[in-house]
Structure formats: structure tokens, C-alpha cells
Amino acid sequence: DPTILWFRRDLRLSDQTALIAAAAEGPVIPVFILDDETPKHRAMGGASRWWLHHSLASLDADLRDKGSRLILRRGKSDEVLAALAAETGAGRVHCIRHYEPWWRNAERAVGKRLDLVCHDGNYLAPPGSVTTGAGEPYKIFTPFWRALRERMPPAPPANRPREIAAPSRWPESDRLEDWRLLPTRPNWARGFAEWEPGETGARKRVDAFLRHAARYDEERNMPAIEGSSRLSPHLHFGEVSPAYVWHRVANAGGSVDVFLAEIGWRDYAQNVILQFPDYGAKNGRERYDRLPWRDFRSSAVRDEFDAWTKGRTGYPIVDAGMRQLWATGWMHNRVRMIAASFLIKHLLIDWREGDRWFWDTLVDADYASNAVNWQWVAGTGIDANMWSRIMAPLGQSEKFDAAGYIRHWVPELAGVSDVAIHDPDAHRCRPRAYPRKIIAHKAARERALEAGRAI
Ligand code: FAD
């Protein structure tokens, strides 16, 4: 009997634990199911769908090199898998385990109908397995990381299986084009051309990063420099395993601990949603439910939100980031923090609205990482960050030397000097095409602090 390999966001052939197990059992039917029913309102956003299209095309090509192929089906995962098993006589399903609450439900549902075997492999350590001496899961990053670090390095990554046997007859497959994952009109994805989704592209990114990994520490906070790895969408879609990234980077030499800790943040976020599956919808600390957010139904608030999404707030660093996000599906981490803080504290708009916008526009949109970071910036989370910590966007912009970055993403400001570009209003040199600040920093700060007193 053939075995089904259920791909989700683990779209690779190397170090793919479910594939290794399936291939060892005989003929394999690799399947990817486009399932918008199981995640409901957490169905993939637009940028993720763009990525998915290309990643699936790449995975299919890699499978074909091995004499196999990718079967595409659409619908509710447990129903589709049950039908596929009945159709092909498959006896077992292998998959890598995922921790989004809807995937955990789906795994339970599949497990009731079929012989489902879940494997670890998308995290440095299985989420939930890093605990305190008393067996409790960690809530705060630093002690979590200390405990995880002690278990590192992860096992060396496995190569792709030498052989993936084909079944005697292939079941039918949808055509990828028919899924319409790419934008039609308008084509907002032209700026996404810098990405190469898929395992080959992911490995190229790792190679490229090794050339400057030793400078990560100093350069990662400078938006004008490509100091970080840009591996986030590749890691999210599982095109490389974190163990692979770990071993490549750790063996490259130099001080890479700060980078490895960031990979640890990725694990930490999964650890949080495993404890708090609603983390994308609920404040980590309940007393923050009393925050007097501005009313999102009011048109004035909607207009300000709209200005934020379009990069027209009058705060150059925020606007540069939001435009980079729209154009490329990615935003520099430091700028994500500044832009998120601006929405939450300066505009006093509920972090969940920002989370939702990022969900739709990021190519690395990840339920856990997105929620954990939004709640961290807001100060509503289970970590120790506080509401009263309000980022000063203009000061941050200067401190991290964002002039070149702003000039690139906000062309209206291209002619403004390095000194004035962070705050053209204050230097009386704001070009007419660039909007006035939608709110003054000081007034916004006071309003946010006042809001915090409600708690
Ligand atoms: P690098 O600096 O090269 O880091 C390497 C890898 O570590 C990243 O690829 C990523 O997998 C992981 N990582 C780094 N920082 C974090 C972090 N703070 N939290 C979790 N993992 C991290 N990251 C996502 O992957 N998906 C999201 O949806 C997401 N939403 C975010 C929302 C906000 C408001 C903020 C402030 C941050 C968010 N991040 C998210 C975290 C971070 O901004 C990105 O992971 C990072 O910018 C990706 O760029 P990179 O691959 O060059 O990172």
C-alpha cells in the first residue's frame, strides 16, 4: 500500500522527517491541501498565497527530479485525506506536526479517521518540551532560551531521501494555476520579485547570509543595511529546517549567538501559542482588556488606520516601513517594532487590527510570531514588557540611521538632507507631496499614557 505524505508548511525534501518516514515504508503519495475551511478567518493572506504558489511549484519540480510529484487537492483537510486514502488504498499518513490551534484540531480530526503519524522537525526543539525544573512551560523568553540553548545544537539535518518510490497509479491532482493564488488585477506583487520561494531559494539565502553573519550583531538594527538573513518566509513555509540554518550558521564561525537567539524567538512563539492558543485574539494579560482603544467603527479612526497601511502618516520611518511591506511583503524587524508601536500607542488602535493587516501583507505571516510580537510591542502579553514603553519614532529613526532607507521607500523625501529627513516638519522642509504628521508625537504620547492609567 502507498503511504500519504501530508505537506503543510514544511515544503522541503531535505531534513523532512515525515518524508523520511514515509519513503522508508514504500511508495509515497505527496499531497498538499489548500484548506481555507479549517483555519476559517485565519486562512492565508494575500502575500502568503503568492509565496505558496511559487513554493508549491518549486516543491513539485524537486519531487519530479526524484521520480515523484505533488498531488494538489482542495477542501477540508480531514475529509480530503480520508477520500484520498480510500481512493488510493493508502494505509497511513505522515506529517510534520504544527501548533496553530486549527492545525492541532485538524490533526485530531485526521487521527480519528486514519492512521496519522506526526513528526517533529520544524522547530529547534518540539514546542512544549522545554520546561522549567518543575515541568512548567516558560512564559518569558530569556529563561526559555537559556533552557533551550542547553539542549543545542539540534541533531544534524538529514539529507533528502535517495529515493521516493512512486505509487503504481497517481491519483488526480488539481492544477496549481486553477487555485488562483497569485494576484490578478492590480498586480501588487511586482516588488516581490526579489524573493525566490522554495527550497533552492531558501538555501541561496542561507549561503548569502553566511557572507555577513559575523556582522549580524551590529547591522541587524540598521534598516538601510541588509544585515539580517531574510530567512523568515523560508522558515515559515518550512523550506529549510531551523536545524539546517543552525548548523550552517554556527559552523561559519564568528559570534553568531545573537542570531541563534532570534531563531530561538521563533521557537518561543510556538511555545506561547501552545499554552495560549487564542494568543492572536486575546490579550495575554486580562487586565489589558480594559484599554480604551479608539473606536474602529469611527470613520476618523478608519482614515488614520488607512494612512498607516498606505505609509502616509507623516512619520517618515513608519511610512518607509509600511511601503516596504506593501511593495515586498516584508519589513525590517526594527521598523516593524516602530510601525507597530505607532499604530498601538500613537494612534491608540487595537493591536489586533495591526496583526490582521500584517497577516494579509507579510510573506512571513505566522500566527505565533505575529501575535507574540504584536503583544510584545503593545505590552499586553504574558511577557514582562509594559504598556508605558512608548517608542519615539523620530528618535529611533535617527538612532538607527534610517536616512537611506527612508529615501528609498519614500521618494517624495529623496531631496531632503540626512539630518532633516527623519522629521521634515520640524526642519521646515517638508515637500508638499509628503503628508503632514497625522498626530503630534507629544500629544499622542500623553494620550497613550493616559489610556494606560485606565488599567
Ligand atoms: P533575522 O534577524 O535574520 O532572524 C532569523 C530568523 O529568526 C527569522 O527569519 C525568524 O524566523 C526568526 N526571528 C527573528 N526575530 C524574531 C522575532 N522577533 N520573533 C519570532 N521569530 C523571529 N516574524 C515572522 O516570522 N512572522 C511574523 O508574522 C512576524 N510578525 C512580526 C510582527 C511584529 C509587530 C514584529 C515587531 C515582528 C514580527 N516578526 C515576525 C519578527 C521579525 O520581525 C521577523 O522574523 C524578522 O524581521 C524576519 O527577518 P529576517 O529573516 O531577516 O530575520
- What are the low-pLDDT stretches, counting only 5+ consecutive residues below 50? none
Order of helices and strands: EHEHEHEHEHHHHHHHHHHHHHH
Structural class: mainly alpha
- The number of distinct helices, counting runs of at least 4 residues, comes to 18
Q: In whole angstroms, how far apart are the ends?
A: 60 Å
Number of strands: 5
CATH level-1 class of the largest domain: Mainly Alpha
Gross morphology is: globular
Biggest sheet, open or closed, and with what strands and sense? 5 strands, parallel
Q: Would you identify the CATH architecture of the largest domain?
A: Orthogonal Bundle
CATH homologous group name of the largest domain? DNA Cyclobutane Dipyrimidine Photolyase, subunit A, domain 3
β-strand percent reads 5-15%
Give the cofactors and ligands.
flavin-adenine dinucleotide
What strand order characterises the main sheet? 3-2-1-4-5
Radius of gyration: 23 Å
Helical coverage, percent range: 40-55%
Mean pLDDT: 97
Tally of domains: 3
Domain Photolyase/cryptochrome alpha/beta: 1-124
Keywords: Chromophore, FAD, Flavoprotein, Lyase
Site (Electron transfer via tryptophanyl radical): 293, 351, 374
Binding site for FAD: 216, 228-232, 259, 364-366
